């Protein structure tokens, strides 16, 4: 049977020059012949069709992850309509397909009947091959004699024909399913395998979108495609030669056209006039094209057009102006999206587009502050982009639906005033002249305004704002602190970055929501006051001119102020703090530390730290276990006597001090395990005798003598 089928089919393929010629020509347009994949009309169809099926399933199925809505079983022999013996897996799939056919008959595509082949008497054998192999069949399930080759004269011929239609439809449906994974080029290659594949690949389901982007196709070839697939709804001829005659052919032939994309060529005025005849058109994109042929304006009239994109288009002796946009506004009342980027003569001053939701005006030199009145009239506007509008100086908009705004590289831009309850994204970058910003929004959660060197005033009423980054806003003054305090309009603010804001001198925040604060590189700050009970992270790197600091109260667990060498007054009230480092605060003379959970205090090189400060600290921080007072020459006997308030003290470093008597230490630190006395040159041998002879520190396991030698108690 297979031999008969392929012989007849090959003869029909050879004689049908017009059909095969079209596919062959279009295939060459796609860039590469069928031989590139190992398939052609002059090869063994039986072998090649099976190989091609394996290639389709292997590549497309794996690419889709094998879980698509139209996935197929890889064990199925899809060569059902080509004869041959059935495998076990194919028989099972056929049975399943028959059930699915009955179950999904309402959702099945229109049947495709391929009865042009000479099936002859061998059709009975073909139907016999489709029977399941592994099922146990009883007498009542045996095929009718008309199917298995018995006497068929006593049975109804109509039943046989109906049954054959169902079987053939199943085969075409499976082939149709496989072909849904192919793009247009692969469909053309498949069409060269055999007549059945050509018929299947020509189905209009696969040609709703005619995509010829950057492909060489003649007007005649495109006309053939339009005649073959008159129900196509989308066309892309961007980069194709002679786009004007091609698009005119599409407009005149495709009555259901909804999406049209074209560019890289010249479009005459007749194209814009003909758009009126394309009644179903909803989206038009023209990119990198030359418009017009000497006319003074380009009219666009259309009632259904929603999306219009005209990008990087040049004109011949005309300028796309506000008059053009007024015509668009009058004739396209439902226009929602307008991208008029790179149109230098557009100002919008006399244009009203009330239904716009998206407006993009990149590099429009005619856009100025006077244009804002027209934009404000678009009360449906959700997205506004004004990048590289070099003459724009201010933006003031009160739009209830505005969600997203972009202002990038607007070099003369000075003032921004926005009011929108749903505003959720603001992008402002490289606007070197920007001085004032006022934002009112209930949806904005993150605001990034980095490197706005001229920004001096920021007013925010943003009830949902949680993150703010003002890095390198060098002109911000101390008044910024009021904006981010509890009563400043950002009650939910959690993270604030003010790195390298070098005009800040006195910073004071009172916030019940602030969790993280960064002031790195703010070298001019001399005073810092933080009343933020939930503050967990603070960065003061580079704040080397800080003189007075108050952290009361804060939620910090650790704090390092050793990077602030000029700090002289410190107040810390931190209920959960366990570690405090003051190493290097050489001029610190006044310290009030109230940290009931503090276990480690390093006051190395705090040369001005006196006994009264030490006594107050030991009284309010009773859980200290490690205390470093190295190079603290102002600490004397009174301060050491206060160590009796630290019952958990096990580590004490008094190196490089001027101590002459250790008796206060012996009396107060009964549980001390480590005592360091390096370079304590004023200690005499007599003062060390209690360590050698009297067992002054019974819990001590190690101590370091003044000469730097370690010893253990005897």
UniProtKB/TrEMBL annotation:
Residues 164-210 form the F-box domain. PROSITE patterns: FBOX (PS50181). Pfam families: F-box-like. It comes from the Eukaryota. SUPFAM superfamilies: RNI-like. This is F-box/LRR-repeat protein 15. It comes from Sesamum latifolium. The lineage of its organism: Eukaryota, Viridiplantae, Streptophyta, Embryophyta, Tracheophyta.
